[in-house]
Design a protein that fits this description.
The chain is of the alpha+beta class and about 150 residues long. It contains three helices and five strands. The two termini are about 25 Å apart.
Length: about 150
Amino acid sequence: MTASISPTAVASTSPAPTAKAMAGASRPTATPSAAAAVPAACKNLAVQADVKSAVTQTWEHAKRVSHIQPKPGNFYYGSCGTTLYAAVRFEAGADATGDDRVQLQDEGSGLQSFRFTPSTGWRFVGSDRYPATDDCSRFAPVALARQWNCT
């Protein structure tokens, strides 16, 4: 399975979805609510380490790159109903090879977008244009992109 990101996530007043996002582990789940039939409003969520790891692994698999990490302050994470969204910028990790650095130079520095549904898991859904527009609403709902200040 693959994964997605927000700069500084703000915890919402409602319970945040939890995630066990390593390949083969259980998927993030939204905490059930009494109004499960009605889609929940979009919420910016505090991102957990397992979500960051799953999103990073998703992009590594999609782009065949390794030794990367989310750039500090550049991971956006939230939900709209039962769908989770992430947007992130990556940077080279400590063990990055020359090929890894070239891949990041070509596309990785732009905002990368991801979506999670219970039926599909994390999926890479697209990246920002070049030159960067920082428009998260290309791949996430506008209501969530506004909370991330990237519309």
